[in-house]
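Subject: Protein record for review, amino acid sequence with backbone structure tokens
How to read it: Take the token row as a discrete description of the fold.
Enclosed: The protein record, placed directly beneath this head.
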Amino acid sequence: MKKKVGVRFKPGGKIYDFDCSAFVLNKGDDVIVETEKGLGFGSVIIASTPYDRPAKEKPLKKVFRKATPEDFGQLEKNRGLEEKAYEFCLNCVKEYGLKMNLFSVESTFDTSRLTFFFTADGRVDFRQLVKTLVKEFRVRIEMRQVGIRNQAKMCGGVGRCGREFCCSTFLDKFEPVSIRMAKEQGLSLNPTKISGQCGRLMCCLTYENTVYKELKKKFPKIGKIVNTKDITGKVLRYNTICNRIVVRMEDGKEVDLNVDQLIK
């Protein structure tokens, strides 16, 4: 029976399956794999597991070999090439007056292709730029325009919560985020408070929303009259995570209660 492993090329990136053949690979092993763009350097995230390939599916790309010290040396050279290509392309963008924000350059492991990532408000005519880049580096050039969220994912950073961006650490794809999720979680609808560094609604609103919905099932609706052993009052607001509600009594006094104190 064939075996496959899950390989990730970048932190927070998508996990791809590869046929590991006779290699015995464990989580954390660095490997060289075959990709559509040439050889690639990645890390094993999911250890080898048996699998049966359906007849109609394409065969998986294969693990070429385990990474060697020479491969790590090549990786360092590639980073040097990427830095050089970034600086050169940035100067060309200024020279040609192109309205684009270049933010990253990636080289394939075998340096056969350079991919330039940028954001822009609209379409950019970069034909002359590509010709200049090909003439300078003598490799295949790809210009890729991405959205602002992809830029944040690739560049990384620290969010308003004080932690690294979710998108650049563990989220492998972007899910739709809506303002309704912020309302569901009782957050301020001030755009500056519910938006991430990318200027879009924070990704955490999506994957935390399910938890809030589940916790709120036992909470009374805002405005409902509730009772405890000692008091009766109207629900003003609640703190879902802390399992507490604020009740206003008839005399206008507000009381903070644990929702489990309510008489059902």
